[in-house]
Each structure stands twice: as structure tokens, then as C-alpha cells.
Design a protein that fits this description.
heterodimer; A: about 400 residues; alpha/beta; 7-stranded mixed beta sheet; 4-stranded antiparallel beta sheet; 12 helices; 13 strands; about 15% strand; B: about 140 residues; alpha+beta; Sufe protein. Chain: A; 3-stranded antiparallel beta sheet
Chain lengths: ~400, ~140
């Protein structure tokens, strides 16, 4: 029996894998010690759990366990990485390069350092959502201390050419940071092969718990340091003070281990399901896939259904939990800045749905989703004056709309 | 955001979806909103010229559930009203009836605009001056 509603919003957050919960349970109960308590067995047991998690995480991204700094999540990690580099390397320069489709945790942090006297270049993206390597090269200056480009985009799943980007950053003596929130645990990430110096990621996007994340900070070639943004007891090699969230960290570790072991199988299964979902939905006239189809996370597709409005559509697909590029619910009335950065018109951005599949998504759920979305789009188009005008061959761009 | 039962009802079972023959002299058409803003409403009225009464009303809306519900409700209210009575419909009545939250008040405003715009179109077709339409 199919249980409704169906959760297909896994880019927002994923359910906790029961195996992760099982690994965490002892640390929520008996093993409650403070990992910084070095003088009794309660502390030792907690520290052991943390150390093991560090190793599990390190294996997933091919780094040294000592290079993992635990945080409260990807937002904190992005803040620590960018602000921390900006402060630590202020003698060398004040220029940071990022791109327009980054998550707000990166964009707003960059806005913050601009207020502190930093200079930030926001590279545009093409219609595939990819930055131009030539434009990156041209933006590099002797004052550039950091290039921060996300690995996989949260709205479209577009994967940036990370290796090429890091090479350019390094050839100009800058550090390369990536927001790996959507990529880590979903696709292979190797900090050495990919040339990553700093990377933010989080547990709850890969079947781990909320409230725990990490910042990878390279220790060798080069040795990178970030200025702490949280002052206190000097935990995490002085880069992030605060009592460690032991159960959360153990959960992140287990989630990373499962991701490493099951990534290939998950990817094979999810990409087939995602492709089927996309292919079926694209049989609806005037549907468009947003972002690169070639360079994309295996479990994501973002589709605009022209002439229907995203929020109305989400209400129509009430048995599906998805998200829309329509910002009708927000006060701003502005649709997704990520989709607009790809060059989408406001109306297409308003008409988009993002589907994010997970390890727990089934073929039966995808079948249901296909039928449900098709039905809702068809119904709403019958109700849409724009659809009627399109059918009559009226050019909507020639109409003088009253902006309100 | 949770929708009220009335919004869900109008969204799921919209009243009077459709198109009237706009070439007819006694049909007034209002098209308001903009695709860029995420909502467009087209509201049409058919008027019995002898009694100045609205005999039929149809709508099509591109927009969120509240926009669809606002226009559906508007067509329901319009039928049977005289043109003058229809002009008196205030957006806040729609807000109250559908229990729209503050962020959705613009949907009701758009519905009121659509009504006035349709009436104005009807007037112009019948040799009367256009209504002064407020711009929201």
C-alpha cells in the first residue's frame, strides 16, 4: 500500500537512515560524556565515538581524519570557511570569487565580508548553470585569496567543473573552497584529486541527523588555517569552539560510511528512476529541464511546466512533497534567483518544480508522482488563461501586462 | 503554509472555469496581473442588457491556489448581480470569505481588479466611458 504524501524533497533534507539512528542511540543514552573530558572513562568513550566518526568521514572524501572540523551544519561551515579565510589571509589580499547560484549561506557571507572591506566577484553562470573557466581566469588577481564555488547546486543539481576550477585558483596562489552540501555522499568527492582546500558539508542531506556538519580544512600542501568565528574552549584545533555534538557526529560518521559503501548502487538505481520521472514529465508539452542534464547530481531534476504557476501546482500535487522555484509564498514575490541566473524568464522560474529522490524512493512512488504531476499540470493548464492564449497562437511577450 | 478549507474547495472544484465569446457586445473581459509576477486572471461577464444583470461569469487563472480560489469565488458572486452591485464588491470581502492570510491579500486585490476591468470592458463596448481603474 502506497503511503501518502510521498517525499521527493530530498535536497531540502533527507530522512534519517535507521542504521544511522542505531549508531547514534548509545550516545544519546549511556555514552553521554563530553568528548573533551580527558580525565575519566565517560569522556574517553565519547571521544572514541568522535574519533571513529572522523575516520568514517575521512574515508568518504579521502582526507586525513585530523582535517575534519565539526560544526552545526553546512551554513556554519560556509561561514567559517569564508570568514575564516578572509580574516586569516587578510595580509595577502581581500578578494574572493564566488558565483551567482551559490546557496545563501555563501552569498550572504560574501555580502558580509564586503561590508568588512572585502571585494567579491560574483561570476555569472550559463544556461546550464555552469561558470565559465575563462571568466574565472580573468577574474583572478594577486589579491585573490579564495575561490568559493559550490560542488552541486541545490536547486538544479548542476555539478561545476571542480577540478578545473581548483587548478585555476591554485595557479594564482588562491585557496579553493567548495560548498559540498549536496554532493558529499551522493557523488565521489576526493579532496586531493579534486584540489579542494576547504569544503563545507552536512549530515542531514545524506540520511544523517540535522544540526551537525563539518568543514574540511586541508593540513598539507598547503597547510590551511581559518580564523575561528566562535570563541571559547579551543576545540577542533582552535578553529571551532564548543562542546562536540557527540551523537550528531557519530551519526554523520555512520552516514558517511553508508554513503561510501552504497553510493554506486544508490546512484545506479536513483539515476534510472530520476531519468524515468523526467522523461515521462517531459512528454507534457512546453516542459523544460532546468540546468545541465549532463553535469548533474544523479537524484535531482528541476522542470518548468510553462503556463502553470509553481505554487498552484504544488497545491495540485498535494500528495507529493516537492519544492518550487516560485516564491509566491515569500513576501518578495521574486522567483528563484538560481533559476533566474540560468537566464530563465520570471514566468518559467515561477513554473518550476524540483524533484529530489533518495535512497528510500521506490519505483511505485515514482509511478504515482508521474501520474499525479501530469494530471495536475493538465488540470491547471485548462484553467490557465496563458495556456489558452498559447494554444491560440498569441505571443504572450507582446501583451502589455499590468505589473503589480 | 496551510490553506483554508474554502480555498482548497475552490481550488479543487473551481466554479465557472471557461471562456465566454468575447466578440459578443454584451460580454466584458478583464485580464489582469502579469506572468512575471506569478499570477494572471481573466474574468468574463455576460450581461443581460435589459436588466443590467450579470447572467454568466467565467474565469481562467494562472496563479497560486489563493488566486484561483479568489477568481472562482468572484464568478460565483457575480452571477445574478447587477453591474452596479458587482462594482461594489470589495477585495476585503473575498479575504474574509476565503480566510486569506496577509501574504495572499494581493490575490483578492487582483480579483477585484479583474471584476472592475471586465465591467469597464463591457461599458466601453456599449458606448459608456471606461472605469478609472486603480493600479495596485
Amino acid at each position: 500500500m502506497l503511503k501518502l504524501p510521498i517525499y521527493l524533497d530530498n535536497n531540502a533534507t533527507t530522512p534519517l537512515d535507521p542504521r544511522v539512528l542505531e549508531a547514534m542511540m548509545p550516545y544519546l543514552t549511556d555514552v553521554f560524556g563530553n568528548a573533551a573530558s580527558r580525565n575519566h572513562p565517560f569522556g574517553w568513550a565519547a571521544e572514541e565515538g568522535v574519533d571513529y566518526a572522523r575516520e568514517q568521514i575521512a574515508k568518504l572524501i579521502a582526507c586525513d581524519p585530523k582535517e575534519i572540523i565539526f560544526t552545526s551544519g553546512a551554513t556554519e561551515s560556509d561561514n567559517l570557511g569564508i570568514k575564516g579565510v578572509f580574516e586569516m589571509y587578510s595580509q595577502k589580499g581581500n578578494h574572493v570569487i564566488t558565483c551567482t547560484t551559490e546557496h545563501k549561506a555563501v552569498l550572504d557571507t560574501c555580502k558580509h565580508i564586503e561590508k568588512l572591506g572585502g571585494r567579491v566577484t560574483y561570476l555569472p553562470v550559463n544556461e546550464q548553470g555552469l561558470i565559465s573557466l575563462e571568466e574565472l581566469e580573468a577574474a583572478m588577481t594577486p589579491e585573490t585569496i579564495l575561490v568559493a564555488i559550490m560542488f552541486g547546486n541545490n536547486e538544479t543539481g548542476t555539478i561545476q567543473p571542480i577540478r578545473e576550477i581548483s587548478k585555476i585558483a591554485h595557479s594564482h596562489g588562491a585557496l579553493f573552497m567548495t560548498d559540498g552540501t549536496q554532493a558529499v555522499g551522493k557523488i565521489p568527492v576526493d579532496v586531493n584529486a579534486d584540489g579542494i582546500d576547504i569544503m563545507a558539508f552536512t549530515a542531514h542531506k545524506m540520511y544523517g541527523p540535522k544540526g551537525v556538519g563539518a568543514l574540511y580544512v586541508r593540513r598539507k600542501n598547503p597547510r590551511v588555517k581559518v580564523t575561528a568565528q566562535m570563541d571559547g574552549g579551543g576545540h577542533e584545533r582552535g578553529m571551532r569552539s564548543g562542546t562536540l555534538n557527540v551523537p550528531g557526529i557519530v551519526g554523520l560518521g555512520k552516514a558517511c560510511e553508508l554513503a561510501r559503501l552504497e553510493m554506486d548502487a544508490d546512484t545506479a538505481r536513483l539515476s534510472v528512476m530520476r531519468d524515468r520521472l523526467q522523461k515521462e514529465l517531459m512528454t507534457l508539452e512546453e516542459s523544460y529541464v532546468n540546468g545541465s542534464v549532463e553535469h548533474r547530481l544523479p537524484h535531482v531534476t528541476n522542470i518548468s511546466f510553462k503556463y502553470v504557476e509553481g505554487e498552484g501546482l504544488m497545491m495540485g500535487v498535494k500528495d507529493l512533497a516537492v519544492s518550487s522555484g516560485s516564491a509566491c509564498t515569500s513576501a518578495s514575490l521574486e522567483p528563484s534567483y538560481v533559476l533566474k541566473a540560468l537566464g530563465l524568464s520570471d514566468d518559467l522560474a515561477h513554473s518550476s518544480l524540483r524533484f529530489g529522490l533518495s535512497r528510500f524512493t521506490t519505483d511505485e512512488q515514482i509511478d504515482y508522482a508521474i501520474g499525479h504531476v501530469k494530471e495536475a499540470v493538465t488540470k491547471l493548464r485548462e484553467m490557465s488563461p496563458l495556456w489558452e492564449m498559447f494554444q491560440e497562437g498569441i505571443d504572450l511577450s507582446k501583451i502589455e501586462w499590468a505589473e503589480h | 503554509m496551510a490553506y483554508s478549507d474554502k480555498v482548497i474547495d475552490h481550488y479543487s472544484n473551481p466554479r465557472n472555469v471557461g471562456t465566454l465569446d468575447k466578440s459578443k457586445k454584451n460580454v466584458g473581459t478583464g485580464l489582469v496581473g502579469a506572468p512575471e509576477c506569478g499570477d494572471v486572471m481573466r474574468l468574463q461577464i455576460e450581461v443581460d442588457e435589459a436588466t443590467n444583470t450579470i447572467t454568466d461569469a467565467k474565469f481562467k487563472t494562472f496563479g497560486c491556489g489563493s488566486a484561483i480560489a479568489s477568481s472562482s469565488l468572484a464568478t460565483e458572486w457575480l452571477k445574478g448581480k447587477t453591474v452596479d452591485e458587482a462594482l461594489a464588491i470589495d477585495n476585503m470581502e473575498i479575504v474574509e470569505e476565503l480566510a486569506l492570510p496577509p501574504v495572499k491579500i494581493h490575490c483578492s486585490v487582483l480579483a477585484e481588479d479583474a471584476i472592475k476591468s471586465a465591467i469597464s470592458d463591457y461599458r466601453v463596448k456599449n458606448g459608456l466611458p471606461a472605469l478609472e481603474l486603480a493600479h495596485h
